[in-house]
Amino acid sequence: MTDSRIHIPVLLDEVIAALSPREGGLYVDGTFGAGGYSRALLQSASCRVIGIDRDPAAIERGRALAQEFPGRLEVIEGRFGDMDRLLADHGVDKVDGVALDVGVSSPQIDEPERGFSFRFDGPLDMRMGRDGPTAADVVNTADEAELADIIYQLGEERMARRVARAIAAARREAPIERTARLADIIRSVVPKGKGDGIDPATRTFQALRIHVNDELGELRRGLSAAESLLAPGGRLAVVSFHSLEDREVKAFLRERSSPPPSPSRHTPVTAVAAHHPSFRLLSRKPVDPSEAEARNNPRARSARLRAAERTEAPAFPASGKEAA
Ligand SMILES: C[S@@+](CC[C@H](N)C(=O)[O-])C[C@H]1O[C@@H](n2cnc3c(N)ncnc32)[C@H](O)[C@@H]1O
């Protein structure tokens, strides 16, 4: 049996092909994780890599990998949404490629103490980094309507109201502090899906994880930060795992790669936002895992890669949606 705590990189060949690393280039691996992408980048060209992860355990693994590639890999603890500022602190303002492989890593999900999984009992934590409220804080303090919104919007759980009501009733008895108790509360009100074998707790756990780590906000900020950092010709490769994330990436790249609207006779020239595309899509369609990869690595099944090349045009002004 393979050790499930070993993280098998998803769409690895496809990501490296999209980044097309070159000799002397500088690449950012914004979701260092177990270092799968960083290692492959370092092996495919004599380039340098800066790995970023908000999880101190990933940074620890990164230090070991850095020793294998002296002077070529640096790992920084922080959020990729801040990557422009993090890199500026290291004297870097332009890079040749940025990879993002969003979501959780196998070591995070399979370590009960991290509190991500409904399959093992552990403290209800779910934070990838060290700071901010835990899932237990959210579950025990958010009001019932807010909980229902989180579960509906970020988990796409149709029975969100029912789950929120059950959580509110259970926490009146005693605070919910363990993953197993939360999973049981959810299972008591959400029936098992017919035929798909999906645990009824899946969608609520996903929602809490995305909320606790502000994953969609991070993604928006990370995409804009990558746009500012990439040199002309630099490549962006983003792997996402569910439709909410993919929607963000698709909308960002569609906006940044579309030609500016042509001014009409009725529109004053000054009112037309003349943004020239800051990205060129590498392919219109996202790249999905091959059948073999999906068979061998269940985590890969829902993965999608979108990739684009930075043009010479200036970065778009911040839309405000990226705000923390
Ligand atoms: C799917 S894993 C990446 C695996 C990696 N590509 C590999 O091959 O080993 C995602 C990693 O990104 C980190 N992460 C997620 N969101 C982050 C963020 N906003 N900033 C920094 N790291 C983040 C997680 O802590 C986790 O270690």
From TrEMBL:
Bias type Basic and acidic residues, positions: 285-296
UniProt similarity note: Belongs to the methyltransferase superfamily. RsmH family.
GO biological process terms on file: rRNA base methylation
Cited function: Specifically methylates the N4 position of cytidine in position 1402 (C1402) of 16S rRNA.
Superkingdom per UniProt: Bacteria
A GO CC term assigned to this protein in UniProt: cytoplasm
Name of encoding gene: rsmH
Coiled-coil residue spans: none
Compartment(s) where it occurs, according to its Swiss-Prot or TrEMBL record: Cytoplasm
HAMAP family for the chain: 16SrRNA_methyltr_H
Catalytic activity: cytidine(1402) in 16S rRNA + S-adenosyl-L-methionine = N(4)-methylcytidine(1402) in 16S rRNA + S-adenosyl-L-homocysteine + H(+)
EC number per UniProt: 2.1.1.199
Keyword Cytoplasm applies: yes
Binding residues for S-adenosyl-L-methionine: G35, G36, Y37, D53, F80, D101, Q108
Biological source species: Azospirillum lipoferum
Region (Disordered): 253-324
Record-given protein name: Ribosomal RNA small subunit methyltransferase H
MF (Gene Ontology): rRNA (cytosine-N4-)-methyltransferase activity
